[in-house]
Amino acid sequence: MTKFPDNLFFLYQPKFYNDKIFGYEALLRANENNTPVLPIKLLIENKGNTLFDYFIINSVINDLVKLPTSKINNLLISINVSASLFSTPIDFSLINFELINKFNLKLDFEILESDSILDYEICNNNIKQLKKVGISVSIDDFGKGDSSIRRLININNINFIKVDKVLIDDLIKNQSIVAKLRLLFNFINQLNVKIIVEGIEDKKTLNALQGLGIQYFQGFYLSKPHVIH
User: Fold this and answer.
1) How many angstroms separate the CA atoms of 137 and 143, rounded?
2) CA atoms within 13 Å, Cβ hemisphere of 14
3) Are 47 and 82 within 8 A, CB to CB?
4) Range 168-172, long-range pairs (CB < 8 A, 24+ positions)
5) pLDDT for 133-183, tens place per residue?
6) Beta strand pairing status for 20-32 and 194-197?
7) What CATH number should be reported for the domain whose range is 8-163?
């Protein structure tokens, strides 16, 4: 069994439907000198290692069952997973479904942009099988990498498209972006996929996106990642 560092833990960033929390994203952190940091070296070393994905998934599950039920009951918990995990058939025996079912956890796997999906047929079959056991799948970092549109076109049964901050950074300063984003959002809506925009850092950006019909948000302006007590 692969051994991973024991100084890892998770912070949880709220995800909002308008002004109400509907879920959290589990964010991996390492404790270094009592300071939470992103374990970049560990992530680089384990790029493409699907055992690391299973470790992260089960670590989040183990963490969630220790939290007060009142804090996470009926809320969607998102877990970041690699595209590599979805490029090969998922081994369901390596996921702790006993705890998922016992505590009635609502999980959503967010496919990261950091590597490529090698086989979309396998990917879609994985999503279909996960959906059968109550786990939804979303696309993370939309707009950040070169494969975003290809994923949007080729992946089926997606829960959320998470629009990366890079697409909204100049929204307030450049009005021409508004019309382009409206076209993009209308296209995604026609695919019956929900849109969540991350990286909300100010009220003006939030208001502008609400004016474009967006209802799901995540960002420091709304709430920073934190420990759930």
Assistant:
1) 17
2) 16
3) yes
4) 168/197, 168/199, 168/205, 168/209, 169/199, 171/205, 171/208, 171/209, 172/202, 172/204, 172/205, 172/208
5) 999 999 999 988 766 889 999 999 999 999 999 999 999 989 899 999 999
6) unpaired
7) 3.20.20.450
